[in-house]
Each structure stands twice: as C-alpha cells, then as structure tokens.
Amino acid sequence: MKKHINQLIIAVISILMLSSVWSTSANLSSLQKNRVLSKNSFNIVSSEKVVKIPGKLSQENNIVFTKDGGKALVATIKEDDGTVGRSVYSIDTNSGRIISKFDTLNSDLSGSSPTKLTISNNDVLVISTHSNLSDEVGFIVVPVNPDGSFAEERRVNVAIRVPVTENEQNLPDEISLTSNGNYAIYSNKTSIFVFSTTSGQIIANEQIISEIDLSSTNRIESFTYDASNGRLAVVYQQNSNYYISVYSLTDNSSLQFNRRIRLPKREVIGYGSKLAFDELGSELFLVSSNLGQLSAYDVASGNVLFRKMIDGLAESDKEIAKGLPVNVEFNLQTGRVFIQKPGHIQKPGHIQKPGHIAIVNLNNLAVISNLSFDQILVGALLNTNGQKLYVLEGDKLETFLVETNEKLESQPLAPNSFNLSLYTQSELLGIATDDSVQLLYQ
C-alpha cells in the first residue's frame, strides 16, 4: 500500500512539472509570435492590445496619448449607425478598456465632425472639426482628466473662417499647441492665427496672403511651430515663388516677426511639408520636394549654412512635387535630422509615389540612413534616443536599427492599418484600423 502511495505522489509531481514546462513554452511562443530578432541580439519584446471602437475610423483619425501614456484618444469619422462621426474615445492603454466618450455635437459650432486630434504636454486636447459650412473649420478644446474622463465643464469652442475659391476648396485642420497648452496656432491658407485655448479668443492674426489673391500659387503651404523655443516658420507661395517667414511667439502670445527667407526659384516645398529648428531656434532646416535637397538657414541673417543633396529623394516633375510633402525633424540627443517623404496617396488619375526616409548627421553631413520603400508610408517615427525607426508600410510594421539600417522586426497588422503614433517615454505605438485601435508595446 505504501509503495502505491509513493508511486502516486511521484506521478502527481511529474504531471505538475510537465504542466509548468508546457506553460513556459507557451509563453515564450506567444512572445516570439510575428517577431524577427536581430542577429546582433538587439532586444525586442512586444505585446499587443486591440481595442474595438464603436464606429468607423479613417486616415484622418489619428491617435494621441496623454502625458503619462496611460490614455489613448481617437475620434470617429462615422458612427455605428452610419451617421457622421461625433465621438472621441478615451482608452486605458494598460487594460485596453474604453474609459469615456466625448460628444463633439454638444457644442455651439455649426455641426462638428472630428477630423484630427492634438494634445499638449499637460493634456489639453484640441479636436479639429469640420462643420456643415463650406468655409469654416472648428476647434473644440477640452482638457483630459487624470482618470481619462473629459473636463466638459471647461470646454471651449472656436470657429475660424477659411477662404475658398473655385480651385481652393480644402479646409486645413492642423494646429500646434504651446508647451503649456494655453495657446494654439492655426493657418487658414492666407493668415496665421493664435487663439487662447481657455477662452477661445483670437490673440494674434497675421495676414500673409491677400484673400483676393488666393490660389494654388498664392497661399500658405504649411507652418511649423517648435514649442521648445517658441519659433514659428510659415512656408508660402507668392506668384509661384516660395518664401519662409519666421516668427517668435512672445510671452503675451503676440507674433514677433524675425526673418523672411526667399528660396531659390528652382526649389519646390511640397504642400503640407514640415520644417525643423535646432534646439535654440537659431537654425532652420528644410528639404525641397523636387530636388531632394536638405538646406539649413541662419534665422538671424537669413543666410544659407549648407545644402546637401539626398540620393533618391528628388521628384523631377515639379507639379507632382508640389503635392509631395517632406517632413523634417531635429533630434537633440543625436544631433541628426530625420527626413520623411511619405509618398503620394493613390487617387484616380494620379501616379503613386512610394515613400523615402533619410537620416543625416548635422556634425559632418553624413547620411546615416537612406531607405527607399515600395509603397507609400502610412507613418514613420524615430524613438526618443534616435536608435530605432518604426515604419508603417501597408499592413505591416517594420522596425529598423538606425546605425546599421538592419531590419529588426517585421510585424503583420490588421488590414487597413493607418496613422502611426508613438508615446516616446515607453515606446508605446498606436495604430488605427477602420474599426479599432491597436496598441503595441515595444
């Protein structure tokens, strides 16, 4: 009898040990699913949460994160019943649970369908909206509480008229925020506005193009605001010539003019391009869409500091180049500029232009990375220290090691993935599909 009991105990222990081995093996298999590890053993550990959204998203509906990374926010383009989108959702990034919903139609604006989200360093959320008026863009300002709810009692509504012509029907919806979230900067293609996010009052208004002259060759092409140094660069065309006006946003939020720079006639700056300043705001970096040329200007004098051609970045057709934005970012930690040409989104009658990425060391103008892609880039981001590059191309997320251009990982995503966002402190990625938010922890 005693022998049988001992045998039974041994059998139970064996089953428990085997179960533990199975569990460990399953966990390792789960972590390794859809991952390709680098040969140099650069550590990659990723996990994923998929949050179903009650409604439809589009390429316009980007994801933003709160300061602590604990909440992700996204807006709908359509509701579940097919009506125009009106909902902004707050998502707990740890649990994947929807915390709260904000209704944009509960406002004084003439219909408010959200198109783009912008959030400040202290969690002031600005929701860009399109109204049912053909010449108006609206903004709803609502702070996000620490628990992820919306401070609706502090909601502010702002409406700005956008001049339109027979050939100029687009309604820009992009804004930039000061670091404290108290002021927002916006351009309606002819003027630059600064408005208070606490009262909605327009504090400053600088007209650059006369409304009567508005056309595809007389308009503001883009603007870039650097909250760290208060510099604002406005790119505009006048009679087909490109100019940049640099301003400083003063303590009382007025616009102080610094310098007007006229670009060479042969250069084209694609509509919507982003420029970059150095850490002091004393140098300005830009890339021409047609030449693929990186240029640096001294803000104080307007003089050219250097010009550098980037292989593979040029677009010889000037008319196509006008619609190809090139975005430039300055990384303070590495002293490099990150250049991203997303490419041309496919439309009927248009030739698709694939994306391109380059990283240039400003100390010696060496090109660290120069990557061409087969498709347009839905999104591309560097992590905070500039060591890794995340690229959303089609329905896959690719991770590259910048120093060697080695592909560390290629991860398949859900169909119709778009709008790559990054919470830099923990390298949390947010990717929207047409009906969900994917949260990837790198």
Describe this structure in words.
- The structure is a single chain.
- The chain has 2 helices and 32 strands.
- It has a 4-stranded antiparallel β-sheet, with no helix packed on it. A 4-stranded antiparallel β-sheet has the order 2-3-4-5, with no helix packed on it.
- The N terminus is likely disordered.
- The chain is mainly beta.
- Helix content is 8%, strand content 43%.
- The chain is globular.
Comma- or semicolon-separated keywords:
442 residues; mainly beta; 4-stranded antiparallel sheet; 2 helices; 43% strand; disordered N terminus
> Rough shape?
globular
Radius of gyration: 24 Å
Report the major sheet.
Answer: 4 strands, antiparallel
Strand content: 35-45%
Helix content: under 10%
Number of helices: 2
What is the CA–CA distance across the termini? Answer: 56 Å
- Give me the secondary-structure category: mainly beta
Per DSSP E runs of 2 or more residues, the count of β-strands stands at 32
* Main β-sheet, spatial strand arrangement: 1-32-31-30
Mean pLDDT level:
86
Q: Which spans have pLDDT < 50 for at least 5 consecutive residues?
A: 1-45
